[in-house]
Amino acid sequence: MIQDELQSLHAKYLRKLAVTDLTFKRYLYDQINWEVRMIGIKGARGVGKTTLLLQRIKLAFSDPSEAFYVSLDDFWFQNHTLNELAQWLNSRGVTCLFLDEVHKYPKWSQALKNLYDDYPEIRIVYSGSSMLEIDHSKADLSRRQTLYTLNVLSFREFLAFEGVLQIPTLSLDDLLHNHVKKAMEIASKIKVLRYFDDYLRHGCYPFYKESGEDFLLRLDETAQVVLEMDLPSVEEVTYTTIQKAKSLLMIIARNVPLEPNIQTLVMELETTRDLCLKLLYALDRAGLLLLLTDEPKSYKHLVKPKKIYLGNPNLMYAFAPSAEVGTMRETFFLNQVGAIDEVVMPKHGDFKVNGKHLFEVGGSSKTFDQIANMPDSYLAIDDVEYGYGNRIPLWMFGLLY
Q1: Backbone dihedral region of 332: left (phi > 0), alpha (psi from -120 to 50 degrees) or beta?
Q2: pTM for the model
């Protein structure tokens, strides 16, 4: 019986592999050291982790029977263990095991540790949709794994995914000093602002192509899954707590960017300060929120955020379509720059990056008045193709990864 069931798992794997497209690969693919014995890939739901795993198999293994992919939320694991699967695969010469949705497996970090120790001939690549528990488990796996984060599509990736233009990534330093030349090269080839508008509406998640006009509905459903399934699978939360998390998300969506009064939120949610902060940071880790603090963010010490944004521009269109355009601009900047650099809230200006660069974000009429005479200060300007001096087009901050 177990032989037949495992053959069924194998058939599911081959069907998924057969329809995996290699036309477009996420930025992270070429950054991963695939030779490491255990690799973890974390990221929000819908950003393309499953596709990344299957692309690796398709590109690296001429014989797909040398590898095996399985999602750990498969019903097979209701009656069987990961160790049973590993034993069967090891006896058939599988050299690399790709595990998806690991946070759905009970005590998954201990199970992975055991696999790593018991099957030294098998390499393990795993992914999980919840960013929270994977980080909590670093202590158990830190000596064994290399952990990566897959962010939402950048604007640069969106242009490539659309087949519009292939653009090399820019470092922040290169962008600050050479943005005029780079912008002229790009804007001479495409109507960049048109595509930027499209990106803000639907370009953060690869599934927008298959969703079509239902994209915002799919995005709402994805958020529901995070709250109703992912959060309970990694935290000991009650139904009431899940409802409070939903309420918190809606409160923030109506008021973005929210400069939170934690005591007011605590009263509205009928909860405690600790639980309120814990929910805020959980939603941040899940990619539904962006918390802006005045010091480098730490998930071990939950300080009150100074501002709270929705996680990316697409979520704004889904949950806060009437929000001001200025909030959209700030959300885009924080989402894209914060994915690779440290961003905090400064005393003057909108954002401080890497403890050095000060930014104000605004429209084409934005001036330096609020950050006048401040060193290393810049404007991120919307609705312009080109900038000059320290005035940089906002869309260019989507070229960093």
Answers
A1: alpha
A2: 0.94
Placement of tokens 């053959």 in the chain: 7
Q: How far apart are alpha carbons 40 and 133 in whole angstroms?
A: 12
DSSP states of 379-391 as a string?
A: EEESS-S--BTTE
Q: Both tokens of residue 251? A: 């409160």
SS3 132: helix
237: nearest Cα among 280, 283, 284, 275: 275
DSSP codes of every residue in 263-276: HHHHHHHTS-HHHH
Among 18, 398, 47, which residue's Cα sits nearest to residue 206?
47
Cis preceding linkage at 296, omega within 30: no
Cα separations (Å) of 176 from 152, 172, 286, 333, 359?
Answer: 23, 6, 30, 14, 11
User: Own/partner pairs for 323-330, CB < 8 Å, 24+ apart?
Assistant: 323/256, 325/363, 325/382, 326/361, 326/362, 326/363, 327/256, 327/257, 328/200, 329/361, 329/362, 329/363, 329/380, 329/382, 329/394, 330/257, 330/361
Strand 357-362 relative to strand 377-381, pairing: parallel
Nearest alpha-carbon partner for 8 in 87, 75, 59:
75
Residue 164, C-beta contacts closer than 8 angstroms, at least 6 positions apart = 190, 195
- Chain centroid offset of residue 366 CA: 30
pLDDT tens sequence across 129-156: 765 556 555 557 878 899 999 999 999 9
Give which of 104, 42, 41 is closest to 77, Cα–Cα: 104
CB burial readout 250-282, b (16+ within 10 A) else e? ebbbeebbbebeeeebbeebebeeeebbbbbbb
Q: Residue 236: pLDDT band by 50, 70, 90 thresholds?
A: confident
CA–CA dist 152, 400 (Å, integer) = 12
Q: Residue 204's Cα: distance from chain center in Å? A: 9
Dihedral sign for Cα atoms in the order 38, 400, 169, 216:
positive
Q: Of the given ranges (139-153, 238-252, 256-270), which has the lowest mean pLDDT?
A: 139-153
Nearest 5°: CA angle at 361, between 360 and 362? Answer: 120
The two most distant CA atoms of the chain are separated, in Å, by: 75
